[in-house]
Amino acid sequence: MAVQRALLVCLAATAVVFQLAMAADHTVGAPSGSWDTSTDLQTWAGSQSFSVGDNLIFLYTSNHDVLEVTEANYDSCSTGSPTATHTGGNTVVALSAPGKRYFICGTAGHCQQGMKIEVDTKASAGSTPDVPSAESPGSSPPPPPASSNGVSLKTCLTVGFGLMLMMLFAL
Ligand SMILES: [Cu+2]
C-alpha cells in the first residue's frame, strides 16, 4: 500500500544520506606518521580500505609536494609529467571513482625514499552498480520522495532516520 511504499522510499533516501555522511577521511600516514620520508607509507596504504566518497588528506611541510602520476611514472618515480600537482601543505583528494590512483612526492629523491602511495578505491559498500534499478544511471540520490503525498523531504528523512534507529534497537 502507498504508505508502506512511502516509508520504504524514506528509508532508502535516509540510507543514502547516512552513507554520504559516513564517507571517511584518510590522512596519509596517520596516526603515527605523515606525508614525509620517514613514514612507511606503503604499509600505511595497505592498512587502509578506500571507498568511493572517501577523502585522501595529505599534510606536509613546505619541502614536499604531492604529484598524481601514472602507474608507469609511479613505478619509476618520474616527476616530469604529473597528471596533477598539489602544493601548500594541506591537500585533499576526493576519491570519487573506483580504481587505482598513484601519488608521489616531487622533491628530488623523496619518491625513491618511499614517498609514494598507490590507492585502490573500491566501490562504496552500499552501492551495487550491477543490480538493475529503476533509478537513473547517474549516481544521484533518489528523487525527493512522496511529494505527491504532501510529505516533505525533511519529514521523510526524519521518519527514515527514526525507522533506522528502531531497526538498530530491534537488533
Ligand atoms: Cu617529499
Automatic annotation (TrEMBL):
TM annotation in the entry: none
UniProt GO molecular function: electron transfer activity; metal ion binding
Protein keywords: Copper, Glycoprotein, Metal-binding, Signal
Entry keyword Signal: yes
Signal peptide boundaries: 1-23
One GO CC term on file: plasma membrane
InterPro entries to which the protein is assigned, alphabetical: Cupredoxin, Phytocyanin-like, Phytocyanin_dom
Ranges where the Phytocyanin domain occurs: 24-123
One Pfam assignment: Cu_bind_like
Location of the region described as Disordered in the Swiss-Prot/TrEMBL record: 122-150
Alphabetical list of PANTHER family matching this protein: BLUE COPPER PROTEIN, OS12G0150500 PROTEIN
Protein name: Phytocyanin domain-containing protein
Provenance organism: Hibiscus trionum (Flower of an hour)
